[in-house]
UniProtKB/TrEMBL annotation:
The lineage of its organism: Bacteria, Bacillati, Actinomycetota, Actinomycetes, Micrococcales. Residues 1-29 are annotated as: Disordered. This is IclR family transcriptional regulator. GO terms for biological process: negative regulation of DNA-templated transcription. Residues 92-270 form the IclR-ED domain. Residues 30-91 form the HTH iclR-type domain. Keywords: DNA-binding, Transcription, Transcription regulation. It comes from Microbacterium saperdae. GO terms for molecular function: DNA binding; DNA-binding transcription factor activity.
Length: 273
């Protein structure tokens, strides 16, 4: 056995440098915390459940150590035992996911696309996303002849009015959609709710929405959804006074909106995928 004191300083320095190069950002003194986090990060969409055997195989640790890490993650309410020896993420993780999602607004990626869309169509273009029960405008590109609209950056608007807002609403899972409709039920008459549900079915099928005068009187809107990993994360929309739009111009705007949404999807996939 070689005593540490017998290792030449030059050799020791070289070994430390090599270790530093291998793990340039490795934090010292937190091996246990690192292992617990590695176990937590092992859960994926394709592997939502882990067993004790998985941990022993993948992390080369003893049974007592595996139980210690599991106990810590359970104590922090990050995992739970579904049945003996089988572990899944707890609902607590959803709160973390929502917090992370709230930071990814993509306005920097959307703005140049909106600028080009406004220049192409001659009308105002916006990027929206859903925040809880509301739609919020995160970015806007106004045309040379801007119009007064309710959707402005930072303003929270209902999800059941307007092309882009309804597109975001249509992406909710059935249970969450029903809960939303129950919460706003007092503001919707039965015929209005039936019409809304019909519109949502069509939007869900096409990934596209139109509206006329639903938010601002006399304003027509066209919107297309932006998806990431199959989930709608936002919508791009163009709004314009209905009186100055021919059927041909509306069709051109619709095509441009779809193309802009597709461009943003591709940009996000290339940058974050």
């Amino acid at each position: 056995m070689v005593n540490e004191a017998q290792v030449p300083a030059e050799q020791e320095g070289g070994e430390k440098a090599a270790a530093a190069d291998a793990h340039p950002q490795r934090t010292k003194g937190v091996d246990s915390a690192r292992r617990a986090l590695q176990i937590l990060l092992q859960f994926t969409e394709s592997a939502p459940e882990l067993t004790l055997e998985n941990l022993l195989e993948d992390h080369d640790i003893s049974v007592p150590s595996a139980y210690r890490y599991i106990s810590l993650l359970r104590e922090m309410d990050l995992i739970e035992e579904r049945e003996k020896g089988r572990f899944v993420l707890s609902p607590q993780v959803l709160r973390l996911a929502r917090a992370a999602e709230a930071t990814f607004d993509y306005r920097a990626q959307a703005q140049p696309i909106l600028n080009r869309l406004a220049a192409t169509t001659g009308e105002t273009a916006l990027y929206l996303r859903r925040v809880n029960d509301s739609a919020v405008c995160l970015a806007i590109a106004e045309s040379d002849h801007p119009i007064s609209i309710s959707f402005q950056p930072g303003h929270l608007m209902p999800l059941h009015s307007g092309a882009a807002a309804k597109l975001l609403l249509s992406s909710l899972p059935p249970a969450k959609l029903n809960q939303y409709l129950q919460r706003v039920g007092s503001t919707l008459t039965k015929p209005v709710r039936q019409r809304l549900e019909h519109d949502l079915d069509e939007i869900r099928a096409s990934g596209y929405a139109e509206s006329a005068g639903e938010v601002d009187q006399g304003v027509w809107a066209s919107a297309a959804g932006i998806r990431s990993d199959g989930t709608v994360i936002g919508a791009i929309t163009v709004v314009a006074p209905a009186y100055r739009l021919s059927e041909e111009h509306r069709a051109e705007i619709t095509e441009a909106v779809r193309a802009a949404a597709s461009e943003l999807e591709s940009s996000l996939a290339a940058r974050f995928g």
